[in-house]
Specification:
With 416 residues, the protein is of the alpha+beta class. Helix content is 38%, strand content 14%. The chain has a four-stranded antiparallel beta sheet. Strand 1 and strand 2 form a beta hairpin. The N and C termini lie far apart (77 Å).
Amino acid sequence: MVGSELRFATDEGAVLVHQPHRQDAQRSRVHCTVSGAAFDLWRLSAAPPGGGRTAGLVSLEALEAVQREADFAQRAGRHPNIVRCHGVLVQNEGAVHSKLLLCEPCVFDLATHTASSSSLPSREVSDLGQELAFGLGHLHNLGILYGGFDASGIFRGHDGLWKLRDFCRAALLPVAASEWRARSHARPQEAPPEARGSTDDALKPEADVWMLGSFLSSLVSGLPQGTGALAIAPQQLVDAAVARLCLLLQWLMAEAPEERPCAGEAAALLGALTFTPPQEILAEMPLREQRRVCSMAVAAARQRAVDLAVAQPSDIADIAELPLERLRVLGEEINQILDNCGMDVAFRPDNAPELEAQADQAVPTPCAGFRQKPADIADASTNASGMSDELSESKLASPSKSAPKKADSTDLLGLT
């Protein structure tokens, strides 16, 4: 009934709020009738396919999706970068099944914040990414995979922090899933397609880290999310802050899941990005990622050189074949792009083959400052593809005959 009171059982006792007049609103601002404290009332509904309130039946999948999202919102608990859910109430009207979530009040969502601009300043993206990474780390510790980022599901709280709220695509991590089923006998969550790797064993926290990097890259480039790679105009790398952020996002989106930093490490790297030289970022990366990022920097410099050559015709015949030393003298912007990406005068071209040789040997040693995964923990001893470390070492030590031929590192970087 409109105007009636709703009673929520919370950790801090019963909370009574007036039911909002618009019962079809997804989010409503309500106040406790006793203390006057403000809350956001979220409505998760499962309706018949036709949308009617009296005709048709609600599908079992829709009911499970509502139940699952409410369960994850409650299980997330209290964290500065998670919208806290104080309590849940079931409300059915006709054929529509709803769950009401009493949550902490928020100011606005990220979609509203970015409505006037397709991209954000690099410093703001770094701060946003750090706060979201902190939230991811908390969820991973609870055995929850967030499953995907959307600007409409990220909210700015009254404390000024960005918070994760939308759990419609969340899933249980493999170890936590068995514990959850043992306690509640609940049906396991289906993993979101983009969180999967080549197999179901890739349902690991590293999937969230990749999706965080993809989401942040869309905010930097202004392009729609989901392109699968960091697409940024070469001239943007002239800004040192943008270049450092792009280096780090390339690392978060590493092709091999085991080479990505965990959520906590990503938060620390994003927080120190302003004061971290690009050479130090490269030094922390695994060797294969170093080569990939260096190739990206050289490609961006060559593309910028082509753009400048078109605008100001020169006698250079083929920019694509110029060595790095000659590429630098074509323009100050090209020098800035290379320097901002960590390829300054201290960069030694003859180190490139050495990096490739080291990367093709045994498993790379962990970066300085990163913790070593304990071998006695089953979940930590497998990489994101479900392959044990021992099996990885054996395959690396004896590569198969069908392994692709190694590309010449000097030609790849344009350092001949």
